[in-house]
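Design review, sub-item: ligand-bound model
Attendees: FS, YL, KQ
YL presented the inputs for the iron/sulfur cluster complex:
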Amino acid sequence: MNEIDHSALYRLPWNLADNPIVWLEPTQACNLACDGCYRKNERNHKCVEDVQKELETFARLRNYDGVSIAGGDPLCHPEVGDIVRRVSAMGRKAILNTNGVGLTRELLVDLKRQGLVGLTFHVDSRQGRPGWRDKTELEMCELRTRYAEMVASVGGLACAFNSTVYEDTIEQVPDVLDWAGANIDIVHTVVFITYRAAVLQDYDYYAQGKLVDMAPIVYSLAEQRRTDISSREVVRTIQKRHPDFRPAAYLNGTERPDSLKWLMSLRIGERGKIHGYAGPKFVEAVQSLHHLWAGRYLAYSSPGMLSMGRSTMATCAWDRGLRGALGHWVRAVRKDPLSLFKTQHIQAVLVIQPIDILEDGRQNMCDGCPDMTLHDGQLAWSCRLEELKQFGCWVNSVPRKQAGRDAIAAQ
Ligand code: SF4
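KQ shared the predicted structure:
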C-alpha cells in the first residue's frame, strides 16, 4: 500500500472567488441531533427575502455552479420549495443537503418541479435517528437504499450520501463504499467526512487577543476522542479491502500543501462491479473544459452524464486510469458478452478532512473551501460559523503548553 503523493494528483482549481459551490443556510433548525454537528439547533428560519439577498451576495462575491441548501435541515424551512425555485431562477443548481427525515416522494416531486437538481443525504449511525439507534454503518445502508430508490423513482436528480467518520466507525467505511458500488446506477456520490471538534483540554482559544470560553460552542469537545482522522487513514482503510482504490484529485490545506483536505476518486462500473478509476488528467479535463464551456467549475453532474461510462472509457483512454478501466471492462465482456449491453456508471467518492489544528496551534483549513457561507455579507467557513456568531471573529488556538510558556515569558 503506497502513501498518497499529493503531487501525483490533480489539484482541483477551486478558490475563494471561483468555486463550484456555495453553502446557503436558510435555517438552523433541525429534526435530528447528530454527534458531529457544528450548528446550534435553533428554530430561526430566514425569510425568503433575506435568502434572496444572500443568493445575490454570493453571486457578487463568487462565481459558482451549485448551491448547497443546508442548515440545520432545509426541509424544516416552511418555504424550502420557494428557495429552490429562487436558486434555479438564478441559473444555479439547487442541491438539498438533508438528513431526509422530512422527505416524502410527493415533496420530492414538487421540489424537482421547482428546479431541484440533486440531494446530498447525511445518513450515518451517530444521528440518534428514531428507529435506527445502535445500528452499524452497514445496517444504515438499508435506510440509504430507501432514499436512493425514492430519488431514482422520481428520476433526473443527482443523489449523494455523506457520513461522518469516527474512530469507532472508520473500519466500516468499506462497507458503505461497497453498498455504494452495489448501487452505482442510483448513487452518484458518496462522501466521508472525518470527525472534528475544538478540543478543550489541549488548547486555549483566543478571540481578538482575549482568552474566551469555547465550551458553549456546539463543536467544542471536553472528553478524549480522536479528532485527527486523516483522509490518508480513510484511504488506507479502504485499500485494505480494495487495494486498487485510487484518488485522482485533491484540495490542499491552507497551512500544509500536502494535506488532503478534499480527496476525490472517480470510479467506473456497473452494479456490484467496479472496472477502475479515472486518473488526474481526466478530472483536470472535466473541470477545465466545463469552465471553458460554461464559465464555471463543475458541481454535480447529471445522472444522464454519469451513466455514460462506456463512452467515457472509450473516448478518454488517453487518461491512464480510464485506460485501465477500459481494459478491465473489455476482459469482463469477453467472459460474459451480454455485459456489453450493461450501462457503465461513473461514481464520485470524496473524503473530506476538515480543520486540523497543528501542534503549534495553526489552523489548517481547506484551501479553496467549497462550503463557504455568508456572515455579515462576507464569505465564511460554514464549519466554524458559530465562532463568528459568538465572538465576532475566528478564534485562535494556542496549545496549552505554549500558553504556559508565554505566561512565563511575560513575567
Ligand atoms: S474549511 Fe470547513 S466548511 Fe470549508 S470545506 Fe473545509 S470543512 Fe468544509
